[in-house]
Specification:
Elements lengths: L1 H16 L5 E8 L14 H12 L4 E10 L4 H18 L3 E10 L1 H6 L4 E4 L4 E3 L11 H6 L24 H26 L7 H4 L4 E3 H7 L4 E2 L2 H9 L4 E4 L7 H4 L18 H16 L4
Parallel strand pairs: 1-2, 1-8, 2-3, 3-4, 3-5, 4-7
Antiparallel strand pairs: 5-6
Helix pairs in contact: 2-3
Length: 293
């Protein structure tokens, strides 16, 4: 009903005032994908849901464009966001165009799969269709420090892969089984969204390897090389108007990298927060470093 009303208003305006320039709503999906506020610039369902609703509800919008620049992160949050975009696209009958920037890898590529078409730069990093898990083992370190590890559980697998306990082969096998299951979900989504456009050996496509934008076109992972301005002007004409959704000027504290100031979720930045924020910043940097960024 809302879509029909919007079309009626758009038609009435065209009749009275002539054809207005086409409008494209732009949503920027930048950062590591993680639930909650784990990272300062993180992406998750809660942080982007409002922007997506606003983009698809814009009166007279010709398309929604997603600018993706993400090294990945949570597979669940990635799938939730991708699913919401596809649901809105079907409900509103609006095409979705995706533009990968520096990197659209792992969960970032999963976000790109929300698009009916995907474009990237020749040097963009695309792919990484796989699953990764990492951690540390501190058993030798605590022995040298004379620390005794005390761990109590109910359930034999409750402390699986505990960093301060000896690694067990059965725990590693269990983790690998979980990873394979998640990998299969990812592969199914790629096949569903890209279909016959996929080219080349599936073993290589789903190996977890990454590709430049040029190679990604050849493999069917994306549809072409192009930037958002050029593609939209070619598609909708030189008068196309791009409306960025939810764009806000960064706060001074954010520019300094000191975390959230008052007003961002009602949290104040204190000295007690700094150790956690430093760890989050290091972890966030590691996500990007995997792709040389």
């Amino acid at each position: 009903m809302q879509r029909k009303i919007s079309k009626f208003i758009h038609t009435l305006r065209c009749t009275l005032f002539g054809d207005p320039p086409p409008k494209v709503a732009v949503v920027r999906l930048y950062g590591v994908i993680a639930a909650g506020k784990r990272f300062r610039g993180g992406i998750n369902m809660a942080s982007v849901a409002g922007q997506l609703e606003q983009a698809f509800s814009m009166p007279g919008v010709a398309a929604v464009a997603l600018q993706v620049n993400s090294p990945g992160g949570s597979p669940v949050q990635s799938a939730l966001i991708t699913g919401r975009i596809r649901a809105l696209a079907r409900e509103k009958d609006i095409p979705v165009l995706v533009f990968a920037e520096d990197v659209a890898a792992s969960g970032g590529y999963m976000l790109a799969l929300a698009g009916d078409e995907i474009y990237a730069n020749e040097s963009s990093i695309v792919g990484s269709i796989g699953v990764i898990s990492s951690g540390f083992g501190f058993t030798e370190a605590i022995k040298k420090l004379g620390i005794e590890r005390r761990l109590y559980t109910a359930g034999e697998s409750k402390a699986m892969l505990d960093s301060f306990s000896e690694e067990k082969e059965e725990d590693v096998e269990r983790l690998k089984a979980i990873q394979l299951d998640i990998h299969e979900h990812f592969k199914t989504l790629v096949k569903d969204r890209r279909g016959k456009r996929l080219k080349g050996l599936r073993a290589r496509i789903f190996s977890g390897d990454v590709f430049t934008g040029t190679d990604a076109v050849k493999m069917g992972l994306i549809d072409g090389i192009g930037d958002i301005r050029t593609v939209l002007r070619d598609r909708f004409g030189k008068k196309v108007r791009m409306r960025v959704i939810g764009e806000r000027k960064p706060r001074f504290s954010a520019l300094l990298g000191l975390g959230r100031s008052m007003g961002d979720g009602g949290e104040s930045n204190t000295m007690a927060d700094l150790p956690q924020e430093m760890l989050s910043a290091i972890e966030e940097r590691l996500f990007w470093n995997r792709f040389g960024l």
